[in-house]
Amino acid sequence: MNRTHTKRVGVVRGGPSSEHHASLSSGAHILKNLDSSYYEPVDIYIDKTGTWHEAGVPVDPYEVLQFVDIVFNALHGEYGEDGTVQAIFDDAKIAHTGSDTFASRIAIHKHDTKALLAKTGIKMPRSRIVRPHSKSKETNLAEIWRTLHHPLIIKPNASGSAVGISIARSFTELTQSVEYILASGHSALIEEYVKGSEVSVSIIANYRGESLYAAIPSHIRYEGEFLSNSIQKNAEYRVEPMKHFSPIERELVLRTAKHIHRELGLGQYSRIDFIIAKNGIYFIEANTLPGLSPHSIFVKALEESGIAFSDFLTHVVEGSGKK
User: Fold this and answer.
1) By CB neighbour count within 10 A (0-12 exposed, 13-18 middle, 19+ buried), where does 67 fall?
2) 41 class by beta-carbon count within 10 Å (0-12 exposed, 13-18 middle, 19+ buried)
3) For residues 75 and 101, is the Cβ–Cβ distance under 8 A?
4) Residue ranges in the chain modelled with pLDDT below 70
5) What is the dihedral of CA 137, 139, 142, 148, to 10 degrees?
6) Contact 297/239 with Cβ under 8 angstroms?
7) Within the chain, where are the H helices?
């Protein structure tokens, strides 16, 4: 690649979401692995109140963004993945990594994502949504309990991956879980539980000669108390290559992941999560800014695919702002 000068890369991390600490880990790993031959990293920290900091000093976002060439968005969850910070980058006319404002706003809302993908024929767990201040909430929950198969997965409709998820095996548990989410100001997405194997596909745009390159799929194996399709309470998980699945399952999950990335208009990279069940492959969630800490699913997939993390970062930085 031809570079005429050292680029100042602002790595934005932290943020006011519940994934603050996960973002700090992703950002630290990025800062450590950016190629110092070509990039000058700038650590931009956003605290839990949403205040931006540079070199430990509170700063105006638009002022600090004037002094970087590009932003590597290492935020997770609300503010970082829902289009909020992307709109700030757009206003500041600064190139940034990840998906654009519109795609971020769609993908963070699980119900909207499902609605957009419903016309494609992709299998998804049957689901319903309950919004805050719903006048018929009790009636809705009773109807949901009657019509969806149990157990049920309850999660915030708009949040980062695996945050605030619970499982309901009784109507009381359903009511309590929904009330907890609604009290935080989120809508509650209620899904049927799909029994099967959890698989994630890490996607990189315009890589290795492909418009959408899929790394070796990751089979997620948990040890500990089961909570939901996506998370285990106080449990360790292992990320393994998807070796023990049929070639047909492997090909279908790769093709479906690329299709979802394309349909949602996602950016340079994403992680698409599935459950492989006896009766097919079910889409669970799209992650527009998956974790990039050393032990994250995405980084493990890069390792299995023979991709150095520093090379991935270079590819993403150099592709930022390009269509």
Assistant:
1) exposed
2) buried
3) no
4) 1-5, 134-136, 160-163, 222-239, 321-323
5) -80
6) yes
7) 20-33, 61-65, 84-91, 101-108, 110-118, 137-147, 171-183, 247-263, 297-304, 309-319
